[in-house]
UniProtKB/TrEMBL annotation:
<dbReference type="InterPro" id="IPR020915">
    <property type="entry name" value="UPF0311"/>
</dbReference>
<protein>
    <recommendedName>
        <fullName>UPF0311 protein HDA37_000198</fullName>
    </recommendedName>
</protein>
<dbReference type="Pfam" id="PF11578">
    <property type="entry name" value="DUF3237"/>
</dbReference>
<comment type="similarity">
    <text>Belongs to the UPF0311 family.</text>
</comment>
Amino acid sequence: MSTPGPAPAVPGLTPVARVHVLLDPPLEVGRTPFGREREIPIVGGTVSGPGRDGEGLHGEVLRGGADRQRVLDDGTAVIDTRYTVALRSGHLLQLATAGYRTGPAPVLDALLAGEPVDPARYYFRVVVDARTADPDLAWLNTAVLVGSAVRTADAVAYDAYLVT
C-alpha cells in the first residue's frame, strides 16, 4: 500500500477583473426535454481590473456573444456564455462562462422578470475560460478563473478571480 505524498497546496483567490456584460432581452426558445431554453444576446460591456501581476486587464465587450441558458424546473439557470473582448492592446480575448444561478423560487422568479434583487439572496457563480493571443496576457490561456456574479434587468456583472 502506498503512502500519500505531500498535501496539495490550499488554493487562494486573486482578483483579476470586473466584467460587466450588457444584455438585450432574452429570446425565449421554449420548453424542451432539457428544460426551458433561452438565448440572451450580449450587446456590449467592459472588462477592467488589475490582471494577475498588475499588468492590467482592460477592454470592451463586443456585440455578438450570447448566454445560451437553460432554466430548470426549480428555476435554476444553467449558464453557458461565449463572447469576445477587444483589449486595449489591440488583441482579442475570448471569454466563456459556465455555472449556475439558483436560490429560492420567489427570488429566481423576480430575477427572470427583470426585477432588482439583492445578490445576497441567490447564488450565482461561474467558471471562466479565457483565450487570447496577447503575449502579455498569455497566462490567461492556462489559468483557472472563477467568478461571483450579479444579474440586473439588462446586465450581468461578475468579479473574476484567479485560483492560485
